Backbone:
């Protein structure tokens, strides 16, 4: 079945909303990257438990939570029933 | 701490939970939930992810394996911050299709297949049983900690007795609040609030213990950091495979765990809550793990070697003499265990009753759908299932003896439920996923998981013989449970994860690619994958022969009398009928099925309605008909659109043509009327004078003069007719050209000589550049000369200068020759320049010399026939005409 | 009487005929001159061509009918185009003749018009 036509270009507000969704989609990718990154720091795959690691992981954690909290209000507004999935 | 006090605290705490749940249920019954269903409560209810395993086990995990325990939280964090990908869709599907459990979701997606429902149920029960046992064990262990710390005088009860009491108590609570009613949406407000309270208790308890450790025992944050760096934990080695594998595993588990699915999807009240939970739940997880490392480090330091690190949360405050804190920690752990068991057993009981017991009941008693009070049957099934689940957990605890480390059991359970992931993800993102594929994937995953992870967990020689571990199944060394296909170097956990997920996914994809889905399956697939596109798609029911009364009877037995009557009445009213019995239209059957599936699951509801409707549901042919119908509608509207556009185009073209015709008609009228005038004028003179002459009686010179006038007018008439004929021939393109080589100079000479007859009285100075005129043209010399004569005559006629001049300039470029005729008169006013080439366009009659105004029109036509043009040249200081003619005229027509 | 006609040959023919019939004929070839003659001479009858350079016959006729002194002046219109008759009558022409006409016709018409208006030829 043919998909309904969508406008090719959007006004400013819907455009920003779309990009916010893109950002929300990318967030877990960024998170996975940051959480796996420490594996690359230690070439012999040996990571000793230092306080630095603890601080790093909790920092990344807090950072992800902060970003998710920043995105959440904008995402909740666009209910997404009729638009998007593009 | 007296042991009896501990038991009393436990009872008080549980009584509190009962009270809370009871109050909330009361409010829910009156429809006044208010803040009790806020995003905060939703987030807190999600915290059942943190079980006793997390509460006690994380510290032990950290003490054994360093930071690896974090992976268990990182997976859910990534899933929740990425909620826009998956959770949002999952929740939307769950709400739209009245999904009651993860087994229901899978079964519903793959054509309401009860087989799949059973498989997922079995998988979930098998995976959850050790997990529930683990919770019982943690409670028993924590009791044991207090018991051993208690003075010798009191006699601590048997561990098994404690486990029994805990299990029975939990079963009672769950039965009371989990099966109070058969809600259409399978929601349990009281329980959700109770576990939210428990979430707060366990967080507060852990934070309190952590704060005590950091600021009470150690000397603040800086000191703790120093202790971490100095601790034995430093020897911990991270294995990249394990690290990433466990993050993946925990992410998969948070989606697939039956209890998580229950609170996340089934109990969800508002999709907006998910947005809040997307960051609040990771925050909760972070708070829960904030003090794990300090507790582990300090515990290892302070407590005697050999003490169980899983119990540090309790033993550390006890060793420091903080009885109240230990009590709080105990309640926290108790909360973790109880909330998990409650929700898990509800989720499992729903699955068991909907996918195993009720279908079995219906199979055994074929008329049951219309006869028995299914409400009671379903509720009883649930209660039995809850009891069975807890009994299984208790049995497992007794059999296993509570020896294994908590963390290992948790991960094995995670891996078990994660086998649902391929079918789940494939089901909601891939329309090509089929029932057979899902069954194949799930079965493969189940077998591989059991063989590589679950059965070996009992230890060599327990579930699997010793020989299988060393020599492989049937002596095939590539089938060793912890080294499939010779992958010996892998960590056993990652080995199991890798092979189960890989083989599961492969079987799922292969099965889906090779099989053809049935009609209901395809409908459901489209409805799930395109859940955001709005409509659920075509109806699932063809118009059947069901008796509305029978349907009402069945609905009453599942939904209850009042609700069923209200539903039927509303449907009847929507169909424009009075009373309670609507026609069994496909739409009504659809909505009824959706309503029923909220209570007994999609597969059962479908089966029950099928029984009454008689004829099976839609066939592939029905589906294709619907699809082609809508395709036809689309095509038709597209065609209409195209036709409309074409009509608009045609109308535009017609309008244009009409305008042109109108103009042409006007032109023709004007032309005819002009011709009439031009003919009648000389005729009038001729007639008048010839009549005068016939009367005679005139002096001879007058006769001669009148004769001359008659002759002149006759000549004028002839010339006019000649011109008209000429023009008509030229316009029709029927002119015969005599093409030959001719000298331009010669033509101009001839033209000048001929034009001298026009107003011979005027002396014209002609300025020429003879060398430039030595051009030989291949054209019709006579016709071109005729044009020149016309233009020169016009100049002679109309140039009003006192000393008239005519300049003739010839230029040749790019195979074309231009001849300009420029006089020094007033020229032609700008607004008239466009008109002069029209027929009968005489501008001023002051100097008319017998022409009918056809001269320039004829010129234009001649030039068109000669492949050239004639145009007025503005801005030359007088009237100027440019004749452009090709050097070589290519004769088109023979 | 006044003859307004731009074709010299036709003008000469009509003039000859009317002069021979005893009328005094003045001649103008376009509208402005004609209206000047009208004011100065007060002719008894106007013979007016339709197609004229400058002002058209109809415009001249309208001007004649608009002026108080000439409102009732008999006017005969000549035209070479058949379809002008209606327009001419609406503009107030008393007689209408289509070219080409016979000499007898025009003489008869002129006589009839002058007789009708109760004036004798001068």
Residues:
């Amino acid at each position: 079945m043919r998909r309904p036509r969508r406008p090719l270009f959007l006004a400013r507000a819907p455009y920003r909303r779309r990009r916010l969704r893109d950002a929300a989609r990318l967030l877990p990718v960024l998170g996975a990257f940051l959480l796996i990154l420490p594996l690359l720091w230690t070439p012999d795959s040996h990571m000793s438990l230092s306080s630095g690691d603890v601080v790093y992981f909790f920092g990344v954690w807090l950072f992800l939570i902060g970003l998710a909290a920043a995105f959440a209000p904008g995402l909740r507004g666009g209910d997404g029933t009729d638009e998007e999935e593009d | 701490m007296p042991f009896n006090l501990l038991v009393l605290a436990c009872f008080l705490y549980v009584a509190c939970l009962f009270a809370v749940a009871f109050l909330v249920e009361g409010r829910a019954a009156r429809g006044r939930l208010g803040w009790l269903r806020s995003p905060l409560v939703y987030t807190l209810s999600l915290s059942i992810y943190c079980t006793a395993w997390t509460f006690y086990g994380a510290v032990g995990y950290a003490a054994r394996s360093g930071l690896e325990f974090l992976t268990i939280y990182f997976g859910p964090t990534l899933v929740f911050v990425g909620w826009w990908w998956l959770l949002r869709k999952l929740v939307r599907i769950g709400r739209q299709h009245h999904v009651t459990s993860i087994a229901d979701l899978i079964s519903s997606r793959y054509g309401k297949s009860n087989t799949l429902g059973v498989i997922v149920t079995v998988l979930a029960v098998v995976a959850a049983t050790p997990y529930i046992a683990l919770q019982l064990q943690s409670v028993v262990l924590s009791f044991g900690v207090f018991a051993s710390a208690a003075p010798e005088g009191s006699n601590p009860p048997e561990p098994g007795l404690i486990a029994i009491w805990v299990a029975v108590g939990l079963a009672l609570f769950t039965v009371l609040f989990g099966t109070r009613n058969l809600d259409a949406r399978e929601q349990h407000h009281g329980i959700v609030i109770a576990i939210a309270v428990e979430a707060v208790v366990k967080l507060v308890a852990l934070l309190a213990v952590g704060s005590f450790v950091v600021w009470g025992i150690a000397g603040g944050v800086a000191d703790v950091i120093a202790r971490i760096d100095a601790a034995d934990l430093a020897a911990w080695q991270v294995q990249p495979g394990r690290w990433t594998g466990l993050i993946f595993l925990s992410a998969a588990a948070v989606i697939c765990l039956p209890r998580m699915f229950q609170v996340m999807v089934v109990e969800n009240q508002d999709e907006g809550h998910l947005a809040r939970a997307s960051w609040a739940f990771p925050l909760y997880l972070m708070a829960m793990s904030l003090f794990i490392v300090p507790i582990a480090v300090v515990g290892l330091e302070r407590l005697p070697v050999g003490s169980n690190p899983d119990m540090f949360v309790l033993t550390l405050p006890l060793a420091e003499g903080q009885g109240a804190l230990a009590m709080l920690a105990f309640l926290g752990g108790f909360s973790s265990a109880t909330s998990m068991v409650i929700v898990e057993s509800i989720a499992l009981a729903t699955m068991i009753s909907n996918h195993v017991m009720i279908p079995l009941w219906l199979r055994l008693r074929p008329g049951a759908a219309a006869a028995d009070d299914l409400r009671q049957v379903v509720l009883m099934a649930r209660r039995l299932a809850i009891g069975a689940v807890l009994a299984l957990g208790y049995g497992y605890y007794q059999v296993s003896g509570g020896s294994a480390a908590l963390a290992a059991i948790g991960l094995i359970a995670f891996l078990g439920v994660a086998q649902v992931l391929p079918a789940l993800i494939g089901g909601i993102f891939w329309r090509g996923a089929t029932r057979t594929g899902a069954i194949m994937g799930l079965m493969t995953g189940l077998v591989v998981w059991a063989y590589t992870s679950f059965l070996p967990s009992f230890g060599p020689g327990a579930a699997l013989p010793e020989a299988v571990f060393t020599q492989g199944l049937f002596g095939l060394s590539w089938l060793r449970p912890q080294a499939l296909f010779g992958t010996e170097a892998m960590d056993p956990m990652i080995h199991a994860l890798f092979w189960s997920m890989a083989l599961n996914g492969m079987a799922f994809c292969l099965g889906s690619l090779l099989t053809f889905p049935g009609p209901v399956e395809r409908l459901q697939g489209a409805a799930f994958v395109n859940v955001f596109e709005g409509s659920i798609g075509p109806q699932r029911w063809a118009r059947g022969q069901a008796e509305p009364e029978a349907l009402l009877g069945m609905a009453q037995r599942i939904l209850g009398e009042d609700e069923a009557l209200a539903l039927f009445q509303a449907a009847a009213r929507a169909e424009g009928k009075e009373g309670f019995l609507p026609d069994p239209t496909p739409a009504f059957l659809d909505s009824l099925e959706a309503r029923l599936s909220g209570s007994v699951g999609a597969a059962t509801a479908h089966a029950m309605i099928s029984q009454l409707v008689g004829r099976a549901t839609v066939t592939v042919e029905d589906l294709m008909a619907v699809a082609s119908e809508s395709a036809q509608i689309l095509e038709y509207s597209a065609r209409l659109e195209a036709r409309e556009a074409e009509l608009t185009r045609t109308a535009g073209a017609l309008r244009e043509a009409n305008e042109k015709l109108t103009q042409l008609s006007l032109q023709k009228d004007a032309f005819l009327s002009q011709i009439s005038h031009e003919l009648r004028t000389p005729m009038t003179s001729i007639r008048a004078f010839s009549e005068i002459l016939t009367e005679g009686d005139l002096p001879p010179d007058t006769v001669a003069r009148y004769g001359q006038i008659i002759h002149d007018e006759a000549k004028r008439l002839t010339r006019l007719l000649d011109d008209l004929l000429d023009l008509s021939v030229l316009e029709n393109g029927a002119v015969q050209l005599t093409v030959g080589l001719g000298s331009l100079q010669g033509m101009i000479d001839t033209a000048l000589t001929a034009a001298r007859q026009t107003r011979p009285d005027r002396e014209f100075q002609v300025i020429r550049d003879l060398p430039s005129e030595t051009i030989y043209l291949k054209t019709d010399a006579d016709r071109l000369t005729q044009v020149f004569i016309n233009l020169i005559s016009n100049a002679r006629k109309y140039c009003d200068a006192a000393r008239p001049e005519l300049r003739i300039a010839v230029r040749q470029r790019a195979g074309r020759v231009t001849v300009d005729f420029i006089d020094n008169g007033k020229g032609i006013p700008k607004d008239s320049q466009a008109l002069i080439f029209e027929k009968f366009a005489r501008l001023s009659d002051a100097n008319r010399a017998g022409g009918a105004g056809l001269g320039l029109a004829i010129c234009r036509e001649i030039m068109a026939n000669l492949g050239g043009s004639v145009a007025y040249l503005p801005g030359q200081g007088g009237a100027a005409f440019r004749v452009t003619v090709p050097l070589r005229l290519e004769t088109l027509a023979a | 009487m006044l003859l307004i006609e731009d074709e010299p040959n036709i003008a000469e023919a009509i003039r000859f005929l009317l002069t021979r019939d005893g009328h005094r004929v003045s001649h103008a070839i376009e509208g402005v001159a004609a209206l000047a003659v009208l004011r100065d001479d007060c002719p008894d009858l106007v013979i007016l061509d339709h197609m004229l350079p400058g002002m058209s016959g109809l415009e001249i006729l309208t001007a004649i009918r608009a002026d108080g002194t000439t409102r009732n002046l008999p006017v005969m219109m000549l035209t070479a185009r058949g379809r002008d008759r209606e327009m001419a009558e609406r503009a107030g022409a008393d007689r209408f003749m289509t070219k080409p006409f016979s000499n007898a016709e025009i003489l008869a018409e002129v006589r009839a018009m002058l007789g009708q208006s109760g004036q004798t030829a001068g």
User: Anything to note?
Assistant: Residues 843-850 of chain B have pLDDT under 50 and may be disordered. The longest helix of chain B spans residues 620-694. The longest strand of chain B covers residues 805-813.
